[in-house]
Amino acid sequence: MSIKPINVGLLGAGTVGGGTFAVLRRNAEEIARRAGRPIRITVVADKNLELAEQVAGGACRITDDAFLVVADPEVDIVVELIGGCGVAKDLVLKAIANGKHVVTANKALLAMHGNEIFKAAQDKGVMVAFEAAVAGGIPIIKALREGLTANRIQWIAGIINGTTNFILSEMRDKGLGFDTVLKEAQRLGYAEADPTFDIEGVDAAHKITILSALAFGIPMQFDKAYIEGINKLDATDIKYAEQLGYRIKLLGITRRTPEGVELRVHPTLIPSKRLIANVEGAMNAVLVQGDAVGSTLYYGKGAGAEPTASAVIADLVDVTRMHTADPGHRVPHLAFQPDQLSDLPILPMNEVTTSYYLRLRVQDKPGVLADITRILAGEQISIDAVIQKEPAEDEEQTDLIMLTHQTREKRINAAIARVEALPVVAGKVTRLRLEQLG
């Protein structure tokens, strides 16, 4: 193949940068056969020059100044693997301004500033590809943007954060508390030293924001997402859920309703028989419901050097193939033509409709259940299942677990406030949301 290679500037020589360099090199011939021309990394930028040297292994230039790379006339495509919304944002916007295509794995950047970035790219006639930003090696962006184009997407539910899924799997397997398992996850390298973004659900919210925009043709609206993590989750509830036939997973959920779009991240009870309920460890899975296709499930590694590199390089190949195409013939960034985005609002959480799991500490005496069901009935909430535990020997209190049918969140909130005021109920009601995903 004597066609001129496409030149790539790699920003960030961390785990994914290293994986991208290694896979691109190992499969160079195969990739060139697919792309129609060779793709080669000509420069690696990292503040840590030693790291850049390690990744490049003398095969290309290295620099500690990423701004030189986005200005380099020889570079056709910039791969941004720095992360965050600081310098990464400036670099991506400069690369676009200089007429370069961008491939990025940066979900935070796209969820927070995607609208601005895609507009800049649109105006300049360049592509921003981001398969690696959601669910690592799983081609979920491509599935939504291209494979499922015929469908009206109804909802998406995803296990899209490996750290929290690993923690929940361990809590369930070993019956251990959250704090113990988090320490273990950090020791094994599944959780960062500062795990806040993962355990509080922010990372999953970045990703579901992106999927929501692609599914429904709406702008990125991360600031309107409802976010609840797993740090307050009690091992007791994992056990009770299991007895009722459910598993608890941290899900990113987005659903189209007549009133607007649901966009939420929270621990969720899912029936144990669902495939997605059985996704264990650090694996990711995304369930997509479309009107024509029904439900499709995408499963695989959501992080790691080579799985993420797999997605980065697929984007490089796409951009290489479309490099010379008329911009009007490319797949639009957010799947829908940019002038056809919808202004469907994001629903506030108290307008969302779902089912609930409630755990109450109650006095063991007649009439307690009747009092509670009366309050729920007053809010038009019907009950699906109840477990009442026998109290321990010398205890007067016991656990009462209830599952409700679907209701609006504001109704359950009103009911919980009234239930907590009952003299027979001790302390706070534990509430978790439940989705059948059928």
Topology, please?
Elements: E1 6-11, H1 15-26, H2 28-35, E2 39-45, H3 49-56, E3 61-63, H4 66-71, E4 77-80, H5 87-97, E5 101-104, H6 107-124, E6 128-129, H7 140-147, E7 153-159, H8 162-174, H9 178-187, H10 196-199, H11 202-216, E8 226-227, H12 235-243, E9 246-257, E10 260-271, E11 283-290, E12 294-301, H13 305-322, E13 353-363, H14 368-378, E14 383-388, E15 397-404, E16 407-408, H15 409-420, E17 425-434
Parallel strand pairs: 1-2, 1-4, 2-3, 4-5, 5-6, 8-10, 10-17
Antiparallel strand pairs: 7-9, 7-11, 9-10, 11-12, 13-15, 13-16, 13-17, 14-15
Structure write-up:
- It is a single chain.
- With 438 residues, the protein is an alpha/beta fold.
- It has three domains: 6-137 and 305-340, NAD(P)-binding Rossmann-like Domain (Rossmann fold), CATH 3.40.50.720; 140-300, Dihydrodipicolinate Reductase, domain 2 (2-Layer Sandwich), CATH 3.30.360; 352-434, 2-Layer Sandwich (Alpha-Beta Plaits), CATH 3.30.70.
- Helices cover 37% and strands 26% of the residues.
- It is built from 15 helices and 17 strands.
- It has helices at residues 15-26, 28-35, 49-56, 66-71, 87-97, 107-124, 140-147, 162-174, 178-187, 196-199, 202-216, 235-243, 305-322, 368-378, 409-420, and strands at 6-11, 39-45, 61-63, 77-80, 101-104, 128-129, 153-159, 226-227, 246-257, 260-271, 283-290, 294-301, 353-363, 383-388, 397-404, 407-408, 425-434.
- The strands form two sheets. Strands 7, 8, 9, 10, 11, 12, 13, 14, 15, 16 and 17 form an eleven-stranded mixed β-sheet that branches. A six-stranded parallel β-sheet has the order 3-2-1-4-5-6, with helices on both faces.
- Helix 1 (15-26) packs across helix 13.
